[in-house]
Amino acid sequence: MFRVAYRQYIGEGIMHSQRVHLRGKNRYISQRFITHQSSGVISTSYRGVARFSPWSKRFSGSLRTRILLQSAFYAACIVGLTELANSYISRDTENTTEYSKTQYGSHKDLALAIKELREGLPGNNSVSTEPTTLQTYGFSEHSYHPSSPHSVVVRPNCTADVVNIINIARKYKIPIVAYSGATSLEGHTSGFSSGSICLDMSRMDQIIQINEDDCDLVCQAGARWEDINEMLKQKGIPLFFPLDPGPGATIGGMIGTGCSGTNAVRYGTARAEWFLNITAVLPNGEVIKTRNRARKSAAGFDTTKLFIGAEGTLGIVTEATLRLTPVIPTKVAMAQFPDVAHAVSAVQEILNTPYGSHIQCVELLDDHMMEATNIAGLVEHPYPVKDTLFFKIQGDSALIKGTSEIVQTIVQKHGSTCFKFAATDDEAQDLWQNRKYALTSTLAANPGTRCWTTDVCVPVSRLPQLVLETKMDLAESGLLSTIVGHVGDGNFHALILFRDNEELGRVSSAVHRLVHRAIALDGTCTGEHGVGVGKKEYLVNELGEGTVELMRMVKRAIDPHNLLNPGKASFDMTQTLRNILTTV
Ligand SMILES: Cc1cc2nc3c(=O)[nH]c(=O)nc-3n(C[C@H](O)[C@H](O)[C@H](O)COP(=O)(O)OP(=O)(O)OC[C@H]3O[C@@H](n4cnc5c(N)ncnc54)[C@H](O)[C@@H]3O)c2cc1C
């Protein structure tokens, strides 16, 4: 049967062949053959050559060799065509906007823009073209995606400066990339190859207004979440801002990526209503406020949300009104398990009890991560090296007691061998700090390595399967990794280590498999880190072409010249074509 199918395949494959009766047998011969035959002679030299062609009936090799040679030829054709198409696509996206044919500014335009930026922002070091600075800002130590240095770094002090910069960028058609804490992990702030203005927001870090009675605060976009909480503590204000992404992240970047962190189990993510108003400068230079300070509003579209997760592609956030929440007493507890699947499966049961809402955080550190924490030397006494859950439990002492009892009962049911509270506030602080410095500890425990951080998220009930399969896959691929996870949300990060390009290639393939596994489990390629450059290729698969096209329509309407952070998030018109080509 296979042979029959194969013969049909050959028959279809030779488009200009004809079936003829030759020496008592049916033969497929090419038009060229027939022309020769009509003159009475089938060339012997042709016959000789035909013995080496896997498409010829005279091929002297076996069927297997014939299939192999043909497959190799077709594979080479596909690779060649893909590369050719990619080179056209790259040229198109780099030199023109992705949806209009407007060219970005030339070198001369760039030089004129830099001159105007220097005139418009005269302060000390407000405009830099120092090569090391351009290189540092253009690349990220956390990302292995292609990048370029920026052409100029500018440091505005206020919204008016940002308007000025945007107007200059628009006049000369130079892309602008907003850059805040630079802790994003998917190449979000990388430079654009034909030239880009990097907008360093670090000088815009002022707290403008604290409204304690209303539980909110207005600040500039460059303020860091840790500084805001520290400032509230110093002032004796018993409120805090609960979004807690990477150390050093700022409000503008947190809005940009739609971040979350360890507190999301209790407080939700940036997409919950923690940002009441956003003040943003649009690509046309207009300054807008998305809302007033009222706690809720039903006035039209939720334009605040438009900027959350937009990765600096729709506007530059210059100020924001943050909703705050009361500081509640918390206790930190730790439970250890025989394996990661047992650890993760306990989580959903705990969160579904009536005490679930008193759990502020549930974090997983797998056995490799616990070992790395010990080796990195950040702990006074080494932890037992086991898959571990860290809990933050909130409330008054009666609630903490009740919640702790429930947690203890459930983790024991799921095989936990050890459950203990941090004895002192200092110990609790240390435990949590160790979780926050997981990346640093992983690298410190494995000198000479670099690390690729993944970010999939699935419905919590699917998490044990995903974590287990991922650990097996990484082990089979011979890759070292630690795993940490905001497992209360179904989100985990494999911190995969590599030393050289060969290992980096294996890491990249493992990450690809992990993302597809997560999407197949009704999950997402990114729970909190955002799309940047690294996750673009998965969006159509995860969301569907219609949803991605809706995003593109919004982008086209707001930024018709594609000046804001081009090539990031989901706005490559060409990405779909690239997906098709790479799946062929
Ligand atoms: C050790 C470590 C731990 C981390 N843990 C978490 C975690 O638990 N949860 C989590 O969500 N993330 C985490 N992250 C990722 C990172 O901290 C977040 O993505 C964070 O929100 C990025 O903020 P940033 O200020 O560093 O932004 P940047 O990296 O500077 O920028 C991020 C994006 O926002 C855009 N942007 C920046 N400023 C503005 C602005 N003013 N207006 C418009 N767009 C802007 C940028 O162009 C870019 O696209 C972690 C990172 C590290 C290194």
TrEMBL record:
The keyword Mitochondrion applies. Residues 145-327 form the FAD-binding PCMH-type domain. The keyword Lipid metabolism does not apply. Keywords: FAD, Flavoprotein, Mitochondrion, Oxidoreductase, Transit peptide. Its cofactor is FAD. InterPro entries: FAD-bd_oxidored_4_C, FAD-bd_PCMH, FAD-bd_PCMH-like_sf, FAD-bd_PCMH_sub2, FAD-linked_Oxase-like_C, Oxid_FAD_bind_N, Vanillyl_alc_oxidase_C-sub2. It catalyses: (R)-lactate + 2 Fe(III)-[cytochrome c] = 2 Fe(II)-[cytochrome c] + pyruvate + 2 H(+). One of its GO terms (cellular component) is mitochondrion. GO terms for biological process: lactate catabolic process. It is found in: Mitochondrion. Its EC number is 1.1.2.4. PROSITE patterns: FAD_PCMH (PS51387). Belongs to the FAD-binding oxidoreductase/transferase type 4 family. This is D-lactate dehydrogenase (cytochrome). It comes from Collybia nuda.
